[in-house]
Amino acid sequence: MDVKAKPRLYLHRTADRNAQPIARTYNPAFRGPPAYRAELPDMMHAVGAVQGDDVPIQQVGVSNFRLPLRYRTKRGEVVTLETSVTGTVSLEAGVKGIDMSRIMRSFYDHKDAVFSHAQLGRILQIYRRRIGSRDARLRLAFSYPIRQRSLRSGHEGWQYYRVVWEALLTRTGALRRLVHFDFVYSSACPCSAELAEHARDRRDIYSVPHSQRSKARVSVEIAPGHRLAIEDLHAHCLAALQTETQVMVRREDEQAFAELNGAYIKFVEDAVRLLYRELDHDPRIKDFEVACAHLESLHSHDAVSVICKGVKGGFTGNFTDFGQLVC
């Protein structure tokens, strides 16, 4: 009886079936001398390696590599926060790739620094020079804590805010510094409040006007020569909208919050205009865009609105992904 030969389950160096198989071992002690490392193949410089149409690429890089970074608060304290980093550069036609590890290495060279937009600008200069790109961008996303005091009881708790710092270095050498800040607040509907009062006045009927958790995403470009702390953006949002959601709440705080919502009722159109007025008066802010979403408790849909300063070549008010504004 013929016995079928078992298939070989390993690679061969050549098509010769009598050749020795490639060794499948790993030596953790092996490092290799400099000459060995220098001769390692580099596909980034391979001749004829570009696939597809040989055209420029606007952005290529790495997204969401995470590490703890240090930031300075407005009071001068240094806090360490988990940060998601996205770094991209432009790629000219005729170039295969960028060796993406260079972006991370350039960044890790500064991992112990206290980060600021100026620090981001320095990193962009370095990795644009290393990679030979014309445009470069860095984006840091993190959750920033600010201590919040309750309305009446005096308790305190940490409120966390989604913050994105963005720095863009253009081929002209100009550095744009952007901050995106999410602020969660309560919005009591003016129409519902008025109807509830009408029912009480005319029919002696108790009813509750509807309010809902709402969110504003404030995006600003910092003016050249100025600094803008995250706490400053928070202060602008609080001054404009007043009704920020609370952390530590006792009965007196809950009553105060109900009164606060009654004092500052607002439609989503009111919210963006209130923020416009607040941001437009700050000389540190060159340009801004505000997107608000009121996550309706009356309707099955949300009420949304977007506004921008109207700077030529700046934000356009073309915010479309309102799904990002889910609180």
Keywords:
2 domains, alpha+beta, 9 strands, 31% strand, Urate Oxidase, 7 helices, 9-stranded mixed beta sheet, 327 residues
Describe the protein:
It is a single chain. This protein has 327 residues and is α+β, with helices and mostly antiparallel strands. The chain is 24% helix and 31% strand. The chain has seven helices and nine strands. A nine-stranded mixed β-sheet has the order 3-1-2-4-5-6-7-8-9. Strand 5 and strand 6 form a beta hairpin. Helix 2 packs across helix 3 and helix 5 packs across helix 7.
CATH architecture of the largest domain: Roll
Structural class: alpha+beta
**Outline type:** elongated
The CATH topology of the largest domain is given as Urate Oxidase
Mean pLDDT: 88
Strand residue content? 25-35%
Total count of helical runs of at least 4 residues:
7
In N-to-C order, the SSE pattern is: HEEHEHEEEHEHHHEE
Helix content bin = 10-25%
Main sheet? 9 strands, mixed
Q: Briefly, what is this?
A:
This protein is α+β, with helices and mostly antiparallel strands and 327 residues long. Helices cover 24% and strands 31% of the residues. The protein has two domains: 54-140; 174-327, Urate Oxidase.
Topology:
Layout: H1 34-38, E1 57-72, E2 78-91, H2 101-108, E3 114-115, H3 117-131, E4 136-149, E5 156-169, E6 175-188, H4 190-203, E7 211-222, H5 230-241, H6 251-263, H7 268-280, E8 285-294, E9 303-308
Parallel strand pairs: 1-3
Antiparallel strand pairs: 1-2, 2-4, 4-5, 5-6, 6-7, 7-8, 8-9
Helix pairs in contact: 2-3, 5-7
